[in-house]
# Entry
Amino acid sequence: MAKEIHIRGVVQGVGFRPYVHRLAHTHGVRGEVINTSAGVTLRVEAPAPALDAFLAALPREKPPLAHIVAVEILDRPVDGYAGFSIRASRADAARTALISPDVAVCDDCRREMFDPQDRRFGYAFINCTNCGPRYTIIDDVPYDRPNTAMRGFTMCHRCQAEYDDPADRRYHAQPNACADCGPRVTLLDAARQPLPGDPIVAAAQLLKEGRIVAIKGLGGFHLAADALNDAAVERLRARKHREEKPLAVMAPDLAAIAGFAHLGTAEEALLGSIQRPIVLLPKRLPERLAFSVAPRNHYYGVMLPYTPLHHLLMAQGFTALVMTSGNRSEEPIAIDNDEAFERLGQIADCFLVHDRPIRLRADDSIARRADGQTRLLRRSRGFVPLPIFLKEELPMTLACGGELKNTLCLTRGNQAFVSQHIGDLENLASEAFFGQTVAHLERILDIAPQALACDLHPDYLSTRWAKAQTGLPVIQVQHHHAHVAACMAEHQLTGRVLGLAFDGTGYGPDGTVWGGEVLAADEVGYERLAHLACVPMPGAAAAIKEPWRMALAWLDQVYGEQLWDLGLPIIRQTPRDKGEIVLQMLRRRVNAPLTSSLGRLFDAAAAIIGLRRSVAFEGQAAMELEMISDGRAQGGYPFAWHPGAIKQVDGAAIVRCLVEDILRGTPAFIVSRRFHDTLIDGWAALCEALRDESGLGRVVLSGGCFQNTLLLEGLGATLRARGFEVYSHQSVPTNDGGISLGQALVAGSRKKKA
# Structure
């Protein structure tokens, strides 16, 4: 009995062929296994019982990093193989093999690295087929050493023997190396001069002295500082021009994390997963880390070491190190040594570098637990380039994403490949990173797009890039439709749903700025059923950075000229002449577009309460409004909508009652809770009314506002209690990092139906 088996999925560079080799010998199966550009092909023969047992065990006992997507089994004539062999890789025309993401160093390698008797003791680049770099070192497929950043390192005879031995854990581990033949770590000062001593020990000593060290990792550089040294962290903030946004920290183990943050079982599992994301964890109070790590925030972003270098560094006696992206504000993370010295030379005191090239940037992923599920807030290292599997096959499409938190998405069949986090497309460096990522993914995935998808906003760099390409149709997708479609794609939903798309800004086809939307949407189109009533957005983009402007816009809606008589802190703190200029802008609609944004209503509420006149990073005012909310307030504020074909929610009534609460002296934490409860109960009631009219009982929650755990959990629970099926993001971000997936689904579906 003989079979030919074609396996697709993540089956290269993960020890799959030696696993098949061992399994074949266990079951007495003869034949061969070979890597192809489509995955792995087996030709096997044995008596029927042995072959059946082999085929049953094949997916069940696979290596930890392997992910099987499809198995095709074909009958073939018996060739009379004498044994079982592993053949050299073959490059075919079809290049559909999936590539493993970069993953954390495994326990076996970590034990060897800390074993003084092991030949790789203290080696900062130890790896095997179960761990180490993948996506960030690959140039092309098949995933063989000549197609990676390791091609410049020739293996010594001992490493080569491991690489050639099917029984060895490092058989065909493409980054395999040791201190005799592989990459090396060097510690340099800001003038690029080597510093004496063991590089890792010396770097640790400098960190303990309060210095800032740039550290080259898997997908780019980190900027590190002792997380217990407030002066060092403040100095890092000042040099990086990152005023208040929380900084990620790395701790050596779970015990250290438990000393400064609250850990649950699910959080422990997430922290220790092979992806090693940054995980948001509630702080222990009083705060144990430097206050400047995450000022006025209830959470730390924490990760465990994931490279051998990280483990060696953390073993030098740190409770936690700040490990923030190695970039200047608004720029992509640095990956090249020369680039790091050029861009980070005014920030870092020294550089812990190595000579293994990084082929593509990959920031740390960020996750949290909310509503009983793991939610990715940034999907990057550890997760990319694994695809999101769609319900149906679509034409090959390249979706270019939005302006902020940009990702791109390429589709092939029923697979959607969402790129790593690219960032905000606001400068030439980010645009170059975007173009590099497009070219890299098209090459390694062998995708030739038949259409381009982009946002409606004409001034987004991603939109302009799409329109500048020639020879391909460009399909523009409305921002909030893309949000809803992204969640539909993730959950493989088809047909119409009620989509609640709540965020800060999105270009509406009517020329207004959308952001508080209820859509009846499917994979192809949408109908706007309801939205937050519009107010002017004085100063346009300036209103995002200065929430007091949105506070004046909403107060003017409610009180007109009488707003100056209100005894609110926001009024007392606003000079009358400056305030009048803003009021004239919004009343005359000069640089004051209308907006239905729920995110801007959050900003206004935060400013009216007195939390934030201006922000240092996107969403800061809304975040702090959520942070102060405490307990369950008695009663909410009125939530009503104007009837019509498109219902408009009366935000002015909410603002009036919120102001009255503040003037009565109601504590801010109660006002915040009432504001949240009003939105939760009110939007749920509106969904009920829309269900009565439309018959739609599935609700999709998407958009940056659903990063607010109070809103996500409260609205989800309320809707479910009222009989709705509720879907929200888990595998892709609810923020604009998921936009490209939605664009790809909509554009591909439209092209398929055309």
In short: The mean pLDDT is 94. DSSP finds 23 helices and 29 strands in the chain.
